[in-house]
Amino acid sequence: MTVVTWRIEVDRTSCVGSGMCTAIAPERFVLVGDRAQAVEAAVEPDDAVLDAAESCPMEAIVVRGENAEVLAPEV
Ligand code: SF4
Question: Does residue 1 lie within any of the structural domains?
């Protein structure tokens, strides 16, 4: 069985702590101090992660697919 894994990267220097990602995908993002980080860097495909990356006002979240291709945010 092939398990597809996405990777979540959060640039904590760009993050402004808006809490958008934690509101959209509370199981995937957590605020530590006033900056977000991924609960787990490697996750199963989850549309909420894409939504969070698209909604981040700073584009601080990048979601990559199996081959490191950028899935979100769209450029
Ligand atoms: S949505 Fe972006 S700026 Fe807001 S807390 Fe999440 S990573 Fe930080």
Answer: no
